Automatic annotation (TrEMBL):
The gene is meaB. Keywords: Hydrolase. GO terms for molecular function: hydrolase activity. The lineage of its organism: Bacteria, Bacillati, Bacillota, Bacilli, Bacillales. This is Methylmalonyl Co-A mutase-associated GTPase MeaB. Belongs to the SIMIBI class G3E GTPase family. ArgK/MeaB subfamily. It comes from Planococcus chinensis. The keyword Hydrolase applies. Residues 1-21 have a biased composition (Basic and acidic residues).
Amino acid sequence: MDREQGSRRVMEGVNESHDGMKSAPRKKFKKPPARNFDLEELANGVQSGSRLHLGKAITLLESANPDDKKFGQELLNRLLPETGNSIRIGITGVPGAGKSTFIETFGELLTSLGHRVAVLAIDPSSSVTGGSILGDKTRMESLAKNPKAFIRPSPTAGTLGGVHKKTRETMLLCEAAGYNIILVETVGVGQSETLVRGMVDMFLLLVLTGAGDELQGMKKGILELADAIIVHKADGPNAELAKKTVREYKSILHFLQQATEGWKTQALPASSFEESGIREVWDMVQEFETAAKANGIFKSRRQKQTKDWFRSMLTDELLSRFFDDRNRREQVKELEQKVMEEQVTVTRAIETLFE
C-alpha cells in the first residue's frame, strides 16, 4: 500500500493493525460549531406560538453542544414566568390499546374546543444514532397538520433517565408557547410509567375489553398510578363487552390505593373510531383539575415534582462530574477488579475513591 492509499484509508476511518487484521473504524467526533441565535428573537417567536421557533428552542435544549445548552438554559430562564399555565396529562396503555389513535382523536376534539395541544412522546432513542425511532408525526398525521397542535418525540438517548430533563424542559417551552394542554405518551414499558407519573398532573391508563384476562398480567402498581382507566376500542361488537369491563374495573378500584388524594379513580369506555366517549374523557379531566386545585393537591404535586426533578438532576450532575476525570475512571476500574477478586471490601473501595 503506497502513502496515498494509506492516507485515503485513514481518512475513511478504517484502521489496520500490524498483523494486517482490520480493526473497528475509528470515528473522530468534533465539537460542532455553536450556532448563532438571537435570544430576543427566539424568545419572542416561542411566545408568539411559532412552531418553528418552538422546535428550534427544543433542539437547543436537547443539544450536546455546551454552547447550545448554555444558550438554551438562558432562553428557558427568560421564558420561565410564562410557564405552568397548562394541564399536564400522562397517557399510557397496554400494547395494542391504541394510544396514538386515542391521542389524535382526543387532540382533535380539544383543538376544536379552542385549546392548544402539545403532544410529547417518550421515545426510546436509537442506541446507535441517539435519534427518535417512533415516528410520532406519521402515526398522528392529522393532528400533526393541525395548526393548534404540536407533536414532538422526546428522545431518551437510550436511557429513561433522560426523560427527567428533556421532557420536563420541553413541557415548559410548550407552555411558554401557549399550549394549555400537554399530553405525554409513554412507551408503556415498566419504568417509563413511574417517571411520567412524576411529571404530570393527571395520569390516564388505556386498556382493552376483557379485564379478567388482562388483569392477570397487569401489575397492581400501574393501576395505582392511574387517575382514570379508559377502556378503549369500545365500538362495534366490543361495545357491550367494554361496558362490562368498565364495571369490572370499578369493582377492582375499590380495593386499590387512589393515585391522587381526594379523587376517586374513574373508569369509562371510549372509542376513537366512533369518536364516542372522548368528550366524556375531557369532561372528567376538567372535573379532576377543578377538584385537585380546590383541595391544594394540584399545587403541592407540582412543587414535589419540581423538588424531585432538582434532586434527580443534582445526582446526575454529581455522577457526571465524578467520572469526567480520566484518572478517576481508571481508579474505579482497578477497584472494581479488586472487589471482584475479593482483595478489598466494597465499603473500603468506596472509601478509597473519596479519600
